[in-house]
Design goal:
alpha+beta, 546 residues
Amino acid sequence: MGEGKRVSLSLQPRSVVSVVFALIMSFASLQICDSHPIFYESFDDNFEGRWVVSEKEEYTGVWKHAKSDGHEDHGLLVSEKAKKYAIVKELDEEVSLKDGTAVLQFEVRLQNGLECGGAYLKYLRPQDAGWVSKEFDNESPYSIMFGPDKCGSTNKVHFILKHKNPKTGKYIEHHLKYPPSVPSDKLSHVYTAILKPDNEVLILIDGQEKKKANLLSSEDFEPPIIPSQTIPDPDDKKPEDWDERATIPDPNAVKPDDWDEDAPMEIEDEEAVKPEGWLDDEPEEIEDPEASKPEDWDDEEDGEWEAPKIENQKCEIAPGCGEWKRPMKRNPAYKGKWHVPLIDNPNYKGIWKPQQIPNPDYFELDHPDIEPVAAIGIEIWTMQDGISFDNILIASDEKTAESYRVMTWKPKFEVEKEKQKAEDAAAGVDVLSGFQHKIFELLYKIADVSFLNAYKPKLLDLIEKGEKQPKLTIGILASIVIVFFSIIFKIVLGGKKLKPVKVTEQTNNTTVAETPNDQGSSGEKEEEIEKEVTNAPRKRSTRREN
């Protein structure tokens, strides 16, 4: 036999990474063979012929079978901005979600971020519910909708159960309350929903529990799956003589004879004396004696030239300059406009509410009657491209889902994370620490509190700015705490209007303290105020009223 050829194993660093990744994925495939998912889509092969793209005319977005940035692994890619997308995969057999444990899991990578758009999946009911794959759209009936969605004040990982009321036959969407927020980076993330036989549902992101809820709890879903036993009587009417006024003007009150509504709030202080050394004939500002008219100044085009003003140095050492005027003081006779005082209403009956009657739509059940899943669809409208879906899984146990996370998602995530760190370091970009991540997760939960809804856009704007500038984390946290306690203060005071925060001037820096504002877009009014204050010329404080 002839002498064998020597094979060179010299590899470039990038090639080494590719080989290692390929080995990991090969090992993963061997390990996964021991698991038994109900459905699994890796997108290793082209989706065409297996997934059906909707033919509805509004869905013009083009799906592509493409590699994720920096990987050899393929996924289902959203390739164009500002488009509607719809695609569906019919399952070989219907999958029951109400017998035993059911696990729904998939990966999403937002390669260009997500400013406004969805990246969720719909688990569709059988087609006898009235839909066909080629006409898949927003109205196609689903059992569960699950996944990230972000736009404006919305930042959540949806979990929506569409459940049939056995009394009325109507399907109602039941939304998970206070769902977790969407990770803000551009890395691959795996989303998992675990439905258990005891009605518990767990939402995991990257294998970490982010939300635990009970499908039948009114505290966890809105509206609750089991409706209220009673409802307000729609035929009950408030009696005409029902008085809801807790207080009324005192009918016996009379304005005092000595009450002067025309007395001014302030009057001149007659006891004030002009300070000694006050320079009545000196102006506070004088023309700059060193200023000269520019050579290119044209009186006809530019108007008559005037020397710029500077502070009068004589006024610096004197108590003041210009015409002296007595300062104002509070008028002891001032009482303002007289108002009739309020007294307790003897006829007060409280706020009227209609009587409660039995709810004809009420029902009881031990477990939700979740419709079987016959297909998986992605129907989204997004302003961003580069959204990649991968490794869609339905399993009957948590260990199977965990093995897929470890073998398919984890290696990609680690590679992406290290690459992102290197790029951030090279660009001098600050990176959020683990502690800061927890802070922002908490802040997103605070923004979701129901009584803060009017301030939610403002809060989310502050949080998102903080995520982009991690060094501002403490400042952002302080701002939100101020906003939060300002709102609490307003509630405690019964809706009394807070006094405006004054603008304070310190040397050359002008600081505008932020107050909660639920009008206009994110901080526009504050920015306008700050711009006006910054651009305003500084004026020397007068001492005429000393």
